[in-house]
Each structure stands twice: as structure tokens, then as C-alpha cells.
Amino acid sequence: MARCTAPVNGHRTASGAANCPACSSRYGYRSSYSYPSYNDSYSSNRSNSSYGNYNNSKGRTQKPSWSKSGSSIFYTATEINALTPVRKVVEQRADKPDIRDIFLCHAWDDRRESALQLHDLLVSNGVSVWFSEKDIPLGTSFLREIDKGLAKSKIGLVLVTPSFLKRVQNDGVAEKELSALLARDQLIPIVHNTTYDELRDISPLLGSRNGLNTQEDTMENIAKKLTELITV
Length: 232
Prior knowledge:
With 232 residues, the chain is of the alpha/beta class. The protein has helices at 6-9, 14-18, 23-26, 38-57, 77-93, 114-124, 132-135, 142-151, 162-169, 173-182, 196-202, 204-207, 219-230, and strands at 100-105, 129-130, 153-160, 187-191, 212-213.
């Protein structure tokens, strides 16, 4: 007769009873039963709910006409309305030679943090980016290189941060970049670590433009949306 192993191994878990030669048959356990692992359960729950719940909870249920089939990125109606005029500019400039996809306007203080993060995410998605840290040679005119970068980019991003707002308020170089971008429908504000209300207090004209906001979406998803936007 099989002996119970509880005195030695204990039956504190269902698997312990299932592996016991005496108790497994008594309580109807099958020794071959396998329990789902934490990783299996986590992966299943994540794949089934994370993207869907995240998009729905933020009101992202739409896709623009330029999204490719099979894309997992969803947008709000406000985001699509803000990006549609910029998309038209992308299509108009698509055939121009020697042109970058995006001109990234940012405050000098953000060059090694949030601006660099956005730059690297875009590049990892195959986007060509004009970035002052990499595209202004030593000994050249800073303003002249900015003019050239703007002229040779499909669209412009303005990374609006607390540092950027200080630069604009003090009439820094960011103000000149901003003025050139605002003259055309190629500008997308990316609000990061600040709010549109604070932006409107400093620059009502820029604050009147809808864009993307890292308080409502991740920087990774924003980079993917921009990648879709410039892909023709």
C-alpha cells in the first residue's frame, strides 16, 4: 500500500498532494497535472488586454488614412485632426532629393535627455532626423545651419519642455526655429513634462496648435506615430 509523504514533504500545496502516491488517488489528483506558470499567465493577460485596454482607456480607437494595414497604433480624433495637415506637407515634399524626414527643435538643456531620447527612438524606427547635436559642424554658423536644416526636412517637431519654455520666453535660438516652423503647416508640438496651459501662457500661437503629449501617451508610441506619419 502506498504511504503518505506528508510527514516528510508536507501537503501545503495542491501540487504536493498530487505528487504523493497515497493522496493523489484518494483526492482525485493526477500526478501528471501541470499548473500554468506565472510567466504564461502574465504573457497571456498582457497580450490580450494591455494594448486594447490602454488604447480604449485613453480614447484611442481610430486609425488615420496613412496607417498601414496591421498597425497596432491607435489615435484619438484630436490627434488625427492635428496630424492631417502635416501629412499633406509630407506627401508634397516626399519626392524632394536630399531631404530629412524630421527636424527636431528643442532646448539646449534637453539635448542629452528628452531630446536625445526622442531622437534615438525615431532613428531606431528608421526615421532620418536633423538634430543639432549631430548636424552642426564645429566652426559653422549655428543659425545658418538651422535654416538649412529646416529647409531640408519634411516636417518639424517642437519638443516643448520647461527648459524650452524658458528659452522661448528669453528669446533664445528656439524662438527663431519656432517662427520659421509656424510659418508653414509642418509643425507638431510634442508636450513633455509640462502642459498646454503653460505653453499658451508663453506662446499663444504655438499653444493653439494641437499635437502629441507624453502625459497621455508614451514617448515610444509617439515615435511610432511620427514614423507612420512620414512614411509615404
